[in-house]
Design goal:
Structural class of chain A: mainly beta
Shape of chain B: globular
Strand content of chain B: over 45%
Radius of gyration of chain B: 13 Å
Oligomer: heterodimer
Radius of gyration of chain A: 14 Å
Number of helices of chain A: 0
Largest sheet of chain A: 6 strands, mixed
Number of helices of chain B: 0
Helix content of chain A: under 10%
Structural class of chain B: mainly beta
Helix content of chain B: under 10%
Number of strands of chain B: 11
Order of helices and strands of chain A: EEEEEEEEEE
Largest sheet of chain B: 6 strands, mixed
Chain lengths: 115, 112
Amino acid sequence: GAGVSQSPSNKVTEKGKDVELRCDPISGHTALYWYRQRLGQGLEFLIYFQGNSAPDKSGLPSDRFSAERTGESVSTLTIQRTQQEDSAVYLCASSFPGTSADTQYFGPGTRLTVL
Amino acid sequence: ELKVEQNPLFLSMQEGKNYTIYCNYSTTSDRLYWYRQDPGKSLESLFVLLSNGAVKQEGRLMASLDTKARLSTLHITAAVHDLSATYFCAVDKPGTASKLTFGTGTRLQVTL
């Protein structure tokens, strides 16, 4: 079956522009996560969606970052007025929390470069 | 604040050798995960460890969990070049709905 997909795979933008990143989770997965991975570092949690509950936005680094999710499907992460420090790979993951393992499955990521 | 530390950060080893990667975490956790990441690729799930004393093995990799010591190990037996990748451990904090905190990763390079 299809895994988590993300688009675009690469995005180069100029400082100050807005960008929108998209994530399609695995069908049936009710939980969706966004992480950021800076070069040579581990993953940093950004935001979590679970069903119709209010999202956990505790990892968003500033109010320039926002995310939405349509039901239990597609999610978009929006970064407004991008800064050079936003350059990173943005990874999306989905899971089905009904299992004891609740393994998160990751998409291929979007590499964002802010010039 | 939950902190996850891995060591070593970088490991160069010869084919055929054994080695262990360590993952320490600072607070009680329900689950511990190991992931593999190849250069330029996303993360691939390797193991999920759910309880104290849990041990899981897949090929040349074996992961274990000691919840009392807050320590997990990833043991590599008779390494082969194909195992070259970055390995991450991650834990979730009880009550945080599986929000994972990742270690900084261990970059493994297996040389011929």
